[in-house]
């Protein structure tokens, strides 16, 4: 292509990309552009080109290299989750989750089993994001073998003038046939209707640039047009009334014996013992640089705060963080609902305690209609995948449901109204939620049925007796930590 013709096409393309960015600013979805491929220099050139062609104020670029110390302590997908763009913004990703996994596999840093798991993580990640509305554009810049070898030869000669050649890249190129086989299979395994790979020939600079720019414009334009159509037509899915229909075959709440209790003397003795044991085990966790996630869910006034205080009173305050979960902020609402929780995963040697959690998606958001049927139904698998990745990284997920009956809840509400230092704990919303008790029972049973897994099971705590509930929570935390430490010592 002649340079004059190229410049003419670029001028029109840049104008369109800017207009699409302006239209995107008010959209209810983000865009994530993955720039990958075996043309290493071309990846960087493309990233810079898009910043030149588009308004960089509304681009969020992330180029990933070797994991930092903190990234090594977290699940593999953590660094990609935390950097996701919010609605109306275009994210650019260089060295994405798929290509990085390919490299690690080719240089034998991960084995085939680990690589297969990475592919599962990648597919689940993309499916979760696109289900929420994100547009993912995955670009693979490809060079034929002869062109690739030619460029490498030039780059070795003029190393000071081009992008630095990474030792790991050289190892890949030294066995091109194997790399080609692995790449082709991986691209096939990570290709889907909602996030397909677009393989672009990268030998010709002008053709590559135009192809990339036109592809991005086409995809964003189509997604904006689809959103406009969706806004005109009524959303038949979100108001079907199915949020009040159970899918569980078992009433888990009915199996909880609420008559269990502890007298004050026994409680004080047990509390001292289990707090001492918890303190010892948590110290061992800290010494071994192991982290832990604890989730407290339950009815209003079920005693979550009291259980948390009895647990944390035996722990060094520098080791844990209690995270109260309320309605999402504007920034959090502009991201996938799991985004804010991924960002709060503890680093090595730390514990995160959630007072309410990501389960709001399948509880209050389902009951109140804040989530559509598709959203809360797909959330079960999304949550299971999230917790599985924590478990796979060696982070135990301890989940409690604190259960009380309706009469006990009313008594506690009245107590809160009469005791001055508890006034702040009771609101009109608490009474409104009581009116939907049956609806919540349905959602709770479904939640337990679909998210109590072998790697993150629910522990159902009878909580009509606060004393009994607090001791049961401490016991279970100790049992899980003890088992985790034992399993770690035998690995």
Automatic annotation (TrEMBL):
User: Biased-composition ranges for Basic and acidic residues?
Assistant: 236-253
Q: Which terms does the UniProt entry file under GO BP?
A: polyphosphate metabolic process
Query: A single GO molecular function, which one?
Result: polyphosphate:AMP phosphotransferase activity
Region Disordered, residue ranges: 226-253
Gene3D superfamilies this protein is in?
P-loop containing nucleotide triphosphate hydrolases (3.40.50.300)
The record lists the membrane-crossing segments as: none
User: In terms of domain of life, where is this protein from?
Assistant: Bacteria
Q: Which residues form the Polyphosphate kinase-2-related domain?
A: 2-223, 262-486
Q: So which residues are the signal peptide here?
A: none
Q: Which Pfam families match?
A: PPK2
Output compositional bias ranges, type Polar residues: 226-235
The family database entries (PANTHER family) matched by this protein are listed as: POLYPHOSPHATE:AMP PHOSPHOTRANSFERASE, POLYPHOSPHATE:AMP PHOSPHOTRANSFERASE-RELATED
Descriptive protein name: Polyphosphate:AMP phosphotransferase
């Amino acid at each position: 292509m002649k340079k004059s013709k190229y410049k003419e096409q670029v001028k029109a393309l840049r104008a369109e990309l800017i207009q699409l960015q302006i239209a995107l600013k008010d959209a209810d979805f983000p865009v994530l552009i993955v720039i990958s491929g075996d043309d290493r220099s071309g990846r960087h050139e493309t990233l810079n080109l898009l910043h030149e062609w588009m308004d960089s104020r509304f681009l969020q670029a992330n180029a990933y290299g070797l994991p930092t110390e903190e990234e090594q302590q977290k699940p593999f997908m953590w660094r990609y989750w935390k950097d996701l763009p919010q609605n109306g913004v275009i994210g650019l990703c260089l060295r994405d989750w798929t290509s990085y996994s390919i490299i690690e596999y080719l240089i034998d840093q991960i084995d085939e089993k680990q690589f297969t798991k990475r592919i599962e993580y990648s597919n689940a990640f993309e499916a979760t994001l696109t289900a929420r509305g994100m547009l993912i554009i995955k670009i693979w810049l490809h060079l034929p073998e002869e062109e690739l070898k030619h460029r490498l030869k030039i780059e070795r000669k003029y190393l000071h003038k081009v992008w630095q050649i990474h030792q790991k890249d050289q190892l890949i190129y030294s066995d091109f046939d194997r790399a080609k086989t692995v790449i082709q299979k991986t691209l096939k395994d990570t290709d889907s209707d909602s996030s397909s790979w677009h393989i672009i020939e990268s030998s010709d600079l002008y053709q590559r640039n135009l192809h990339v720019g036109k592809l991005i414009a086409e995809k964003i334009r189509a997604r904006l047009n689809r959103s406009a159509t969706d806004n005109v037509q009524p959303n038949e899915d979100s108001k079907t009334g199915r949020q009040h229909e159970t899918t569980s075959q078992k009433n888990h709440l009915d199996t909880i014996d609420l008559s269990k209790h502890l007298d004050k003397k026994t409680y004080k003795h047990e509390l001292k013992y289990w707090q001492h044991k918890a303190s010892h085990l948590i110290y061992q966790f800290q010494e071994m640089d192991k982290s832990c996630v604890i989730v407290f869910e339950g009815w209003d006034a079920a005693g979550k705060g009291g259980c948390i205080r009895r647990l944390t009173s035996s722990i060094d305050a520098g080791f844990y963080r209690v995270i109260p979960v309320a309605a999402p902020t504007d920034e959090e609402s502009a991201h996938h609902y799991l985004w804010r929780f991924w960002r709060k995963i503890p680093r090595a040697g730390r514990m995160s305690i959630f007072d309410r959690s990501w389960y709001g998606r399948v509880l209050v958001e389902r009951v109140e209609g804040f989530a559509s049927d598709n959203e809360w139904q797909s959330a079960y698998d999304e949550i299971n995948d999230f917790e599985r990745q924590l478990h796979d990284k060696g982070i135990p997920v301890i989940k409690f449901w604190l259960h009380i009956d309706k009469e006990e809840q009313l008594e506690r509400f009245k107590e809160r109204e009469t005791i001055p230092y508890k006034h702040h704990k009771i609101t009109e919303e608490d009474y409104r939620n009581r009116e939907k008790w049956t609806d919540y029972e349905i959602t709770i049973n479904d939640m337990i049925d679909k998210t109590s897994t072998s790697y993150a099971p629910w522990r159902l705590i009878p909580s009509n007796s606060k004393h009994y509930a607090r001791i049961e929570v401490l016991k279970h935390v100790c049992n899980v930590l003890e088992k985790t430490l034992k399993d770690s010592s035998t690995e």
